[in-house]
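Local shape tokens

___
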Amino acid sequence: MSRVASGRSNIYNAAARAKARKASLIDSTRMLQLLQLGPESIGASIGELGYRNEMDIYASRMSGADAVEAALVHNLDNDLSEILKFCQGPLKSIVAIYIERFSYEKAKTVLRSVNGGCSDELIESQILPSENPMNAIWLDIVRNTDTVEEAASAMAGTPWGKELSKLEGSETTLEEMEDALDRQYYSNALQISRGKDSNIQLMKYIRTEIDHRNIINQFRELRQNISPEKRSQMIILGGRIQNSIMLQASQTTNQETLLDTFRRSIYFDDEGFDEALTESNKTQSLDSIASLLTHKRHAMLKRFSYLNPVSPFPVIYYIERKVLEIQNLRLLVRGKAIGLTSEVLESHMDF
């Protein structure tokens, strides 16, 4: 867990630097121009937009979409590290717990890779490239474990392994491990967000994230016919939606009743949800629901960033926009590589 840093925060300086970085991100006009390029031209263009150093690292052994994607993730890791360096005091603790979510995601990547039977060589060369020094801790776990249970056990003593250790000795599924990681992360995030230099809006944002994760999990678990008892155990505590309503939601047996249960809470924003659920049923995927909730969080974060110009929000908002840029570029590169049209790709991109 991130510890609360001592000393004074440099909120003014950090907010200004974050805003300057945000101004240098690829805007929607340039992103649409990239959409018109062919697969062979996209990599070179992305390199000229701030990713050249990382792309050169992978050029010697990788090519095409694989090289570009590895470079994009490496660039994001470098960027997050630099952001932490220019934050000080309690501000650093707040930004650190926000950035720590990416460590939790890498922990999930390790568990999924080991559970899927991926070889050490495949993980080291493609999934978590060894050229990225930020992957060293994860590759060490991969090299020294053979099963997902061993990998989870190897994470004991880390911020992301505390909750996993509680699952030892039981028949635990991969999804239960991932849910445990989510519970641990948000427990830490809520604790840090109550500290100095935080504010009520930051707490509201994190609690909304918890609600959205619970909503997605409930729809996923319902479709997978997971028992009500297990669904109730997987609820992440601390969201804005009342726990009593979340418990009622875990007992529902169909999507319509589940949605109606969420609507009993004044903290559930159902705008656009009917359409998203219809699309989800048509595609047999939760992507439309996840996309709707992501848009709602981005809108909230943007609003809070402008309302609180001297706060952690400009830094957090920049991180979210940077992550969004990486996601769009990865989608663009992969989509072009498999022959998707510009129209299809644009419909799935988030600006």
User: Anything to note?
Assistant: The mean pLDDT is 91. The two ends are 32 Å apart (CA to CA). The first helix runs from residue 11 to 23. The CA atoms of residues 216 and 290 lie 7 Å apart.
